[in-house]
Amino acid sequence: MPEGRIVKALSGFYYVADGDNIVSCRARGLFKKKDAKINPLVGDWVVYEETDPSEGYVMEIVNRQNELLRPSVANVDQAVLVFSLHEPSFSSLLLDKFLVHIEHVGIDALIVLSKADLVDDELIESIVATYSAIGYKVIPFSKRDLRGLEEIRRELAGHINVFAGQSGVGKSSLINCLFPNVSMQTGDISQKLGRGRHTTRHVELVPIEGGGYVADTPGFSSLEFVGIDEQDLANSFRDFTDVSDGCKFRGCLHLSEPGCAVQAGVEQGELSQERYDHYRQFMEELKEYQRRNKPW
Ligand SMILES: Nc1nc2c(ncn2[C@@H]2O[C@H](COP(=O)(O)OP(=O)(O)OP(=O)(O)O)[C@@H](O)[C@H]2O)c(=O)[nH]1
Ligand SMILES: [Zn+2]
């Protein structure tokens, strides 16, 4: 049976892209049963059966890699973290928090430093140096002089991309420059419509040049530590996991344990003091989150 990717879900239909063909599918009864383990999601790679030309049934979900909640998309493999350098000014604390979330879901990050025309090159270079050293790809961008545009386009090709970043950092401006015919759902939806209300728009994956897709809804609107424990937090700092084999204790949280390679690395200036401070701050926030959300 043929296979394809769900690119849109609306009113009980799943739109499965198979090459240039889009097949409108309903889900087979097996997904509706209570004990059905998973329901099809936008982004899922599925086996389908074509019953009429361009119509059919989703039969089976193939090997889902991961699942984002906001927007609800499966198999995202790259988060494009858009951080402006000015208005709003760059926050390494917020970037580190986004990185925790994307590492936890298990997807790659592409960091775009937007509004690069508004600040000095020294600031840009120092941020690029810090995050490249950890192993992230960082690309400065400006919609005024279009620096970085082609490089970003190349990095997106072949991936399923979700854009994320605070309101006003320039996500829609970037999308407009990259893909003039994709319109990004903008603004903070929950603020505009009030909590709990539904929007009429649903996430859609839009195909891009060179293969791959971009989601037309930005992601990660909430950065609470849902489903993350202390060890997950420690594991989501790549620069720390790189050296944590050298910690004396397995499961070391690098807080005040003796023989900790991460604490030693920070003291010796090999790891970033700022990243470590953020890590400790997130630990506190995580504990606070756990206190507030006790099950009893
Ligand atoms: N100077 C300069 N201004 C920019 C750049 N990119 C965006 N802006 C401005 O920043 C403001 C916000 O840009 P948007 O693209 O709407 O930002 P957004 O992230 O989509 O914002 P939300 O819709 O709130 O999520 C607008 O006034 C843009 O003109 C840039 O590269 N340089
Ligand atoms: Zn340690």
UniProtKB/TrEMBL annotation:
Q: What is its main location?
A: cytoplasm
Enumerate the InterPro entries for this protein: G_CP_dom, NA-bd_OB-fold, P-loop_NTPase, Ribosome_biogen_GTPase_RsgA, RsgA_GTPase_dom, RsgA_N
Task: Provide the residue positions that the database annotates as binding Zn(2+).
Answer: C247, C252, H254, C260
**What are the protein's GO molecular function terms?**
GTP binding; GTPase activity; metal ion binding; rRNA binding
Q: Which residues form the EngC GTPase domain?
A: 74-221
Q: Say yes or no: keyword Protein transport present.
A: no
What's in the keyword line of the UniProt record? Answer: Cytoplasm, GTP-binding, Hydrolase, Metal-binding, Nucleotide-binding, Ribosome biogenesis, RNA-binding, rRNA-binding, Zinc
- The residues covered by the CP-type G domain are 65-223
Binding annotation for GTP: S114, K115, A116, D117, G165, Q166, S167, G168, V169, G170, K171, S172, S173
Q: Where in the cell is it found?
A: Cytoplasm
Check the record and name the Pfam families matching this protein: RsgA_GTPase (PF03193), RsgA_N (PF16745)
**Assembly, per entry:** Monomer. Associates with 30S ribosomal subunit, binds 16S rRNA.
State the family named in the UniProt similarity comment for this chain: Belongs to the TRAFAC class YlqF/YawG GTPase family. RsgA subfamily.
Function summary: One of several proteins that assist in the late maturation steps of the functional core of the 30S ribosomal subunit. Helps release RbfA from mature subunits. May play a role in the assembly of ribosomal proteins into the subunit. Circularly permuted GTPase that catalyzes slow GTP hydrolysis, GTPase activity is stimulated by the 30S ribosomal subunit.
UniProt-recorded name of the protein:
Small ribosomal subunit biogenesis GTPase RsgA
Q: Which organism is it from?
A: Brevibacillus fluminis
> What gene, per UniProt, encodes this protein?
rsgA
